[in-house]
Structure to design on (306 residues):
């Protein structure tokens, strides 16, 4: 699916942070789009004023203005330009600016240094134009590990997340999780604005986690590292579960594979403790320690790892 950001939204979202002013709105349909097959397109849309690489969003500072004044033959080259930001209080040549306005380019003025504007625009467009999807589940931060909890409706995902929050872990999103491919191999989970801080718990209804447990109990986003699927024990083939390493496979989100652990749920099992242990085990695996290999060597009488 094509992703785009309207220029009017870009201006409004960064208005308070950059303190810029809109000198000319440009075409009403001005928008910035990214190729859905390339994650880095968002940042690649922004550059300093250049007549070689025609970025749709260009920043003109004092250095770029000096070049423009010394190369009058290039003043009329306006390729793919959609947004022009006049940084550091510069004033471009009137004839060149007239050509820019005639092309329907949105022109903004910002007093900040050109480099700072460039970096912030790249960060913004990288995030806004990145591939994304919504997943059903609960996202929690357990010991620094972003864990997506999944399962059938009514199986107890929110109750498990509530218990984890009561054990001083943090909630990111309940019911709907917005996943964004921030960079190759990096997926972050976010809460849709309408659901921020809220959780639906059967029997209690809608509760505000921030008000119940404090501001430290919720965070805006977290990098996704592990998927835990809880399933009814009666429906799982317990005989098929590997007793040495559990039932683990890989599940792709936005093309990135994540380890998925399936946990059987029953009244006798403390899932919060199991999820905490899964987070610790994930840390150990990422540090390069193979606990199963250590166990195998130990049971066979070989030397164990320190």
């Amino acid at each position: 699916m094509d992703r785009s950001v309207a220029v009017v939204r870009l201006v409004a979202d960064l208005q308070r942070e950059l303190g810029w002013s809109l000198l000319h709105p440009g075409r009403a349909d001005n928008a910035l789009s990214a190729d859905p097959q390339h994650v880095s397109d968002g940042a690649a849309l922004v550059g300093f004023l250049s007549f070689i690489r025609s970025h749709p969003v260009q920043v003109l500072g004092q250095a770029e203005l000096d070049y423009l004044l010394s190369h009058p033959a290039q003043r009329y080259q306006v390729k793919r330009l959609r947004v022009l930001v006049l940084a550091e209080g510069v004033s471009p040549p009137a004839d060149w600016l007239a050509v820019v306005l005639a092309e329907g380019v949105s022109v903004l003025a910002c007093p900040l240094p050109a480099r700072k504007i460039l970096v912030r625009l790249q960060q913004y467009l990288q995030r806004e134009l990145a591939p994304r999807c919504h997943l059903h589940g609960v996202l929690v931060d357990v010991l620094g590990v972003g864990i997506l909890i999944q399962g059938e409706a009514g199986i107890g995902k929110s109750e498990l997340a509530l218990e984890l929050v009561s054990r001083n872990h943090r909630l990111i999103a309940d019911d709907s999780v917005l996943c964004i491919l921030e960079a190759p191999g990096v997926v972050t989970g976010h809460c849709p604005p309408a659901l921020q801080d809220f959780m639906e718990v059967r029997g209690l209804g809608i509760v505000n986690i921030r008000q119940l447990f404090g501001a430290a109990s919720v965070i805006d986003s977290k990098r996704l590292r592990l998927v835990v699927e809880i399933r009814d024990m009666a429906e799982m083939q317990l005989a098929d579960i590997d007793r040495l390493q559990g039932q683990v496979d890989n599940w792709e989100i936005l093309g990135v594979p994540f380890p998925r652990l399936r946990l059987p749920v029953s009244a006798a099992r403390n899932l919060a403790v199991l999820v905490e242990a899964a987070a610790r085990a994930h840390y150990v695996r990422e540090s390069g320690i193979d606990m199963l290999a250590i166990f195998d060597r130990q049971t066979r009488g070989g030397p164990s790892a320190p």
Observations:
- The chain has a mean pLDDT of 87.
- The two ends are 50 Å apart (CA to CA).
- The chain has ten helices and 16 strands.
- The domain at 3-128 is CATH 3.40.1390.20 (Udp-n-acetylmuramoylalanyl-d-glutamate--2,6- Diaminopimelate Ligase; Chain: A, domain 1).
